[in-house]
């Protein structure tokens, strides 16, 4: 440990930190470059060598300036970055994620209960070896800062090298623009620092208030209830209703009035997926979402959730699983069954003729699928306890996931039977997932890959509907490339929910678009 006591010049310190950053945290970046360039062998060697020099010069400049200007504060920030770098690389290697703005936003919206599922000994040991030890070097090594003149010379030379390398690779501009998302998301520490700034900026620019939709009105006194169930990480590939060979929907497959649709999600992560389900059209703005609009129009709206990530909900009855546990102490709050507890009593007690109940579930969310269902639903065995364990045996991971679908089948069938028994109400149950899930295909797990890169299992989602007798008539699904007037396209999107629910609740509104309604 004597080298930690011996003072080092800021030049040497910055060079060591920049080279260590290159070697410890950027192998996935260079691996991506190697597998995604069409250059000849000589061209690949030149490109990789150029990137090595460029990244070393860039990190050297950033490190030198940070420590020169902020002294010990800069070294502490470098130590923190070492730990974050190691964590990022672990997740890139283990779960095939990329650290883009979407991933950063997901991190900001993740609760401890979800994040704790990723904590294991391999993660802790990896971060200790590749994060904590380099962090100690950054903090403990004495540094001779030197003069401003030296800072100008060294940083000027580094920036000059950067410029030369960029000019020498000017012909790679097109290739870089085609892969900018992936390259930027794999280079450490710039992936999370730049994308964190982007996310903060986006949230700052976002409207404080949602954009109000034109006023609507309820046009009849018919007693109608709609239960919208938002699934979590449910992929249609593992639903028996969509041809999966396993009997993961033994109950729903017997529901004769169930209408099943092909559908794609608008994103591969919860916040964007739920927003798309609840908003009237696809846009970056925050419009008044379905529960808020229905509530303002006079509908009795209930939101029950074991999840998070939805846009702001402005209604009188917003209940989390913890809130429901206080109301129904005999029901196990660890599972989504608590969301449907007392549904009939709640509907019958309503003072309104129009009721909308939204259940935001978490049944198929990883990494611990086996914790998402009661043990009596562990039909497909043996199971992996988490995604990391499932990497060693994908069949065990699929077993655990399929059990979550089996539990979903039970919950939705119970809900349909409850609604069907309420003969004094016209009723409907709509189920749609926020996004899909990867279960090891192409060594990818869970979700969150940018939509343009995502495998289809991350965006092909289940979407099915049940209605009571003589409630609404369904439109036909067209097999043509462009659906004729009055028919539905072969593959639907999540925005069909908003307009279809307005129809079911007899809400007349300028915001309604009949082309995005599954009913006539």
Which terms summarize this structure?
520 residues, alpha/beta, Alkaline Phosphatase, subunit A, 2 domains, 8-stranded mixed β-sheet, two-stranded parallel ribbon, 14 strands
What does this structure look like?
The chain has 520 residues and is an alpha/beta fold. It folds into two domains: 2-205, no CATH class; 223-516, Alkaline Phosphatase, subunit A (3-Layer(aba) Sandwich). It contains 19 helices and 14 strands. The strands form four sheets. The protein has an eight-stranded mixed sheet with strand order 7-6-8-4-9-12-5-13, sandwiched between helices. A two-stranded parallel ribbon has the order 1-2. A two-stranded antiparallel sheet has the order 3-14. The longest helix is centred in the first third of the chain and has 30 residues, at 41-70. The model has no long low-confidence stretch (mean pLDDT 91).
Short description, anyone?
The chain has 520 residues and is of the alpha/beta class. It has helices at 2-5, 10-25, 27-35, 41-70, 72-95, 101-108, 112-115, 121-140, 148-168, 173-178, 180-186, 190-205, 270-278, 290-297, 321-327, 343-348, 387-390, 394-420, 496-504, and strands at 8-9, 143-144, 217-218, 224-231, 258-264, 300-305, 317-320, 354-360, 426-433, 438-439, 445-446, 460-467, 491-493, 507-508. The protein is elongated and about 85 Å long.
């Amino acid at each position: 440990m004597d080298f930690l006591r011996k003072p080092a010049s800021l030049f040497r310190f910055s060079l060591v930190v920049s080279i260590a950053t290159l070697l410890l945290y950027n192998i996935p970046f260079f691996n991506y470059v190697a597998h995604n360039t069409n250059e000849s062998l000589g061209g690949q060697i030149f490109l990789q060598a150029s990137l090595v020099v460029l990244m070393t010069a860039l990190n050297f400049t950033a490190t030198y300036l940070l420590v020169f200007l902020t002294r010990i504060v800069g070294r502490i920030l470098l130590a923190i970055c070492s730990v974050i770098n190691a964590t990022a690389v672990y997740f890139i290697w283990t779960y095939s994620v990329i650290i883009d703005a979407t991933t950063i936003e997901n991190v900001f919206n993740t609760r401890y209960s979800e994040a704790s599922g990723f904590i294991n000994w391999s993660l802790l040991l990896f971060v200790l070896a590749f994060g904590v030890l380099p962090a100690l070097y950054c903090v403990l090594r004495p540094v001779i800062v030197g003069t401003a003149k030296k800072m100008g010379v060294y940083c000027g030379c580094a920036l000059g090298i950067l410029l030369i390398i960029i000019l020498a690779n000017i012909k790679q501009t097109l290739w870089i623009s085609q892969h900018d998302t992936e390259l930027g998301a794999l280079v450490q520490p710039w992936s999370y620092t730049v994308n964190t700034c982007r996310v903060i900026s986006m949230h700052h620019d976002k409207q404080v208030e949602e954009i109000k939709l034109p006023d609507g009105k309820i046009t009849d006194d018919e007693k109608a209830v709609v239960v919208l169930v938002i699934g979590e990480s449910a992929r249609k590939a593992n639903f028996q209703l969509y041809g999966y060979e396993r009997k993961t929907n033994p109950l729903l497959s017997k529901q004769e009035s169930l209408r099943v649709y092909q559908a794609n999600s608008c994103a591969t992560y919860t916040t964007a997926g739920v927003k798309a389900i609840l908003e009237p059209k696809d846009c970056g703005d925050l419009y008044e979402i379905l529960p808020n609009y229905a509530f303002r129009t006079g509908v009795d709206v209930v939101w029950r959730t074991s999840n998070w990530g939805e846009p702001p909900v402005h209604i009188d009855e917003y209940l989390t699983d913890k809130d429901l546990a206080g109301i129904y102490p005999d029901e196990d709050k660890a599972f989504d069954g608590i969301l449907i507890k007392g549904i009939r009593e709640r509907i019958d007690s309503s003072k309104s003729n129009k009721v909308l109940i939204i259940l935001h579930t978490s049944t198929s969310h990883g990494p611990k699928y086996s914790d998402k269902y009661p043990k009596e639903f562990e039909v497909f065995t043996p199971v992996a306890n988490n995604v990391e364990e499932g990497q060693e045996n994908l069949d065990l991971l699929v077993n655990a996931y399929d059990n979550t679908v089996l539990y979903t089948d039970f919950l939705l069938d119970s809900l349909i039977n409850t609604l069907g028994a309420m003969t004094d109400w016209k009723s409907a149950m709509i189920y749609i997932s926020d996004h899909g899930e990867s279960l090891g295909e192409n060594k990818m797990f869970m979700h969150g890959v940018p939509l343009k890169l995502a495998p289809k299992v991350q965006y092909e989602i289940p979407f099915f509907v049940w209605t009571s007798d003589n409630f609404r008539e369904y439109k036909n699904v067209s097999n043509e490339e462009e659906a004729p007037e009055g028919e539905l396209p072969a593959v639907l999107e999540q925005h069909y929910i908003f307009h279809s629910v307005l129809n079911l609740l007899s809400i007349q509104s300028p915001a309604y678009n009949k082309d995005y309604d599954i009913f006539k």
